[in-house]
Amino acid sequence: MADLSFRAQHVIKTEIDVIRAQLSRNVLNPYRRGQLYRPDAHPCGEHQESVGLRGDHVIIGTGTKPAESPLVPFNNRNIINSDEILRMPEIPKTLIVVARR
User: Fold this and answer.
1) Calpha distance 19→37 (Å, rounded)
2) What's the number of CA atoms in the CB half-sphere (13 Å) around residue 74?
3) Nearest by Cα to 65 from 44, 47, 92
4) pTM, full prediction
5) 31 contacts 24 by C-beta, under 8 angstroms
6) With contact defined as beta carbons under 8 Å apart, do 72 and 80 qualify?
7) Which of the four pLDDT bands, split at 50, 70 and 90, describes residue 54?
8) In degrees rounded to 5, what are phi and psi of residue 59?
9) What is the pLDDT of residues 3-47, one digit of tens each?
10) CA–CA separation, 68 vs 45, rounded Å?
């Protein structure tokens, strides 16, 4: 499980690096005069961020979290979401993945 978690973190870091490189090339270059702000550095509440932005075009990336449903009783033991699977102490012998569109 440690190997899986390490690999997942590596993939996440690689994706972040790809996005930053795309932003640098397409938005932050000197000819476009774009700026990148990291609002997570200044939290103003548990689920809120405050950033004073002005401009003709603003892109806000909010992140993601696993979907929840009252019909699925997550219990952090044998019914888990995609975040919790990376915290499991070992890989289970069997696993069913349910995806929602």
Assistant:
1) 14
2) 13
3) 47
4) 0.54
5) no
6) no
7) low
8) -115, 130
9) 888 898 899 899 989 988 887 777 766 666 666 666 554 445 555
10) 22
